[in-house]
Amino acid sequence: MTVPPARIRTLTIDGKDVGAREDETILDVARENGIWIPTLCQMTGLSNIGACRLCLVEVAGSTKLQPACVTRVEEGMQVTAHSDRLAEYRKMIVELLFAEGNHICSVCVTNGHCDLQWLAQRLEIDHIRFPYLYGKRSVDASHERFVLDHNRCVLCTRCVRVCDEVEGAHTWDIMGRGTNARVITDLAQPWGESTSCTSCGKCVSVCPTGALFEQGKAVTEMVKHRELLPMLLTMRGRQR
Amino acid sequence: MTPEELSELAVAERQRLDRLAHQINVCTATACHASGSEAIKTRLTAEVRERGISGQCLIRGVGCRGLCTNGPMVSVEPQGVLYQHVTADDAPALLDSLASEPVSHIQAPTDDPFYTRQHRIVLEHAGEIDPEQITEYIAVGGYQALAKALYEMSPADVVDELTTSGLRGRGGAGFPTGLKWRTVAKALSDRKFVICNGDEGDPGAFMDRSVLESDPHRVLEGMAIAAYAVGAHEGFLYVRAEYPLAIKRLTTAIRQARQRNLLGDAILGTPFTFHVEIRLGAGAFVCGEETALIASIEGERGSPRPRPPYPAEVGLWGRPTLINNVETLANIAPIIKNGGAWFAGIGTEKSKGTKVFALTGQVKNTGLIEVPMGISLREIVFDIGGGVPEGRSFKAVQTGGPSGGCIPDELLDSSVDYESLTRLGSIMGSGGMIVMDNTSSMVEVARYFMEFSMTESCGKCIPCRVGTAEMHGILTRFCEKRATERDLALLEQLCDLTRHASLCGLGQSAPNPILSTLRYFKQEYLAALESNQPEEVGAAAEEGRS
């Protein structure tokens, strides 16, 4: 069986002419061409959900901002990935995450290896303009190998997706609304009592912050192995 | 059943009702039900039986007549007498009066502007027929539009008629219904769905509940016509579990329609098949958003996803899906029956037809009204609503619920249509309308709606999840007179972010109550700041010390 060839589209991103397959997203093409667009919930190998809103871009002819991770390329599209307005929104979004959780880098296991911390540095955030919400959040250390610290969770749902889409266990899910939303295991049981968890650790390796970490890791010791997911999917022949 | 049999049944049922000397209609919709209308109905039924006049006098439960403040409402037909604030003890007097003059102390005026200024299309049978008897709906011409569509029109004709009518979605956004139907009709798939969105969650809104309680067959008929037009054979009615009466009546209506071959296989003797099921929502505001609603029906957590792809292309279980609000679907049968041009003759150039509003708050006549588009806000609040109660003055009217805004006194002459409300910084929304008097603090109002948006945010995207919580915190500081100039600037920044960066329409419109109050009542925000001046803080500190 022959696969029909994908059509080629040409467009511009930040004024640069780029070519793309019709099934690619703006984010795919930007990355291929060395144009950096910040992302947090997005992870190559997992489904794209457009939730963190960091990859919002401007598309000429539309007043709405579009998430680059789920917006397909179109012929003649003029994309602006970097503008003062977008930079400001991106900063505010990351600041809101810092204001929502309890992110004290100096006492965090992933200090120095954290996607949120790296984003803040890259976006040149030097202070948080919004009042901290100081949410009351718990830590679940019931699992024999791993720990879940809700204080550092940014609800990117990478753990939910990797567990569902790659491991096939669907141990993780979300409950609650607004800032009370939480990741849960099974039916909000302690992780250690989960009967569906295979203890594979994929959720820990994809978690962008210190929300999921291995037992026994001290400050700065929790290094996430981001390369595991692409490698695993390549080996399984399921690279997205 | 064939169309001929349907017509014969309608005639027979009308004749049966015409033979009755009196029909006493007791409102049994939620508001009157809560004020004890069921007891009135029971008492009337018992009295009629005792008096041996069951053959001449029919007692029946009907849907909402609108003026919920004055419930329980009872009407006597065909004499056209209306009663309000009725109690079960009034039953004997009411029956005694049938041969003579109406009971004066509970009689309601029917020439009040509340009734005369309305234009009822969606609610034309509300309060007139028993929603639990399909024959009563058939007697007033029910399912004739479906028969007409199936026998005299092609699916494309139905879509054309809708396009001609100019009907726009009554759920809030006002998307042209004909265009939506056409896109789903064009989508290629062996399986399509029609969904009726009955997930009404705005504070102060009960339009859909009332329509479902008062005239459920009207909505089912609209769904069946929609399914025929777009090529769907399965439909879902998504209703909040908080609406038990609506669910009960819908369940009855679906069962009766199936028995009469008006739903199910080979409808009205044609090859057209349409099956409807009810799905109960757990009561999340976000599930009114179409992609979240679809996720909820699929059994997933009700969270929206980015659009495109739109449900018309990728909807329920990945199939093309038409989603319309309850009120939109309730407009379909009269449009098919009377023609699109008839409907287009009502309303304004771009907003056709009528709109149902739930009028609540500081207004004399609270209840459900249906008015033609283009009516002014002043007519609604002062003529139909009767104005604010004595001793207070009007301040603002809030339209569109948590996604809408407050409109001040000086703009009351604006026309009620999609464009003009948007220009005023509010929206039509699903039709909640809350009147506020001079005792209301607009900052408090903004905070109330922000609290709603904050607690109802699904939590998926950051601008909505955290932005609404931060805005609520800042508004609380204003309400507690602790706010600073910097808070005002932050509030404006957060409004801008949440509006432009949120994933779904609910997050994008969440700042509207703040933006509209900042636009028209900024002095109230500034007053909250002024009282926070250093000298006053100093004086308060002095006072505390002494």
Which labels suit this protein?
heterodimer, A: 240 residues, alpha+beta, five-stranded mixed beta sheet, three-stranded antiparallel beta sheet, 6 helices, 16% strand, B: 546 residues, alpha/beta, four-stranded mixed beta sheet, 25 helices, 13 strands, 14% strand, disordered C terminus
Structure, explained:
The complex is a heterodimer of chains A (about 240) and B (about 550). Chain A has about 240 residues and is of the alpha+beta class. Helices cover about 25% and strands about 15% of the residues of chain A. Chain A contains six helices and ten strands. In chain A, a hairpin with a 2-residue loop joins strand 1 (about 10-15) and strand 2. Chain B has helices spanning about 5-20, 30-35, 35-50, 90-95, 115, 135-140, 145-150, 155-165, 175-185, 205-215, 215-230, 245-260, 290-295, 325-330, 330-340, 340-345, 375-385, 420-425, 440-455, 460-480, 485-500, 505-510, 510-520, 520-530, 535-545, and strands spanning about 20-25, 55-60, 75, 80-85, 195-200, 235-240, 275-280, 320-325, 355-360, 365-370, 395-400, 405-410, 430-435. In chain B, helix 7 (about 145-150) packs across helix 15, helix 8 runs antiparallel to helix 9 and helix 19 runs antiparallel to helix 20 (about 460-480). The longest helix of chain B has 18 residues, at about 460-480. The N and C termini of chain B lie far apart (about 90 Å). Classes of the chains: A alpha+beta (about 240), B alpha/beta (about 550). The interface of A and B includes residues 53, 92, 93, 96 and 181 of A.
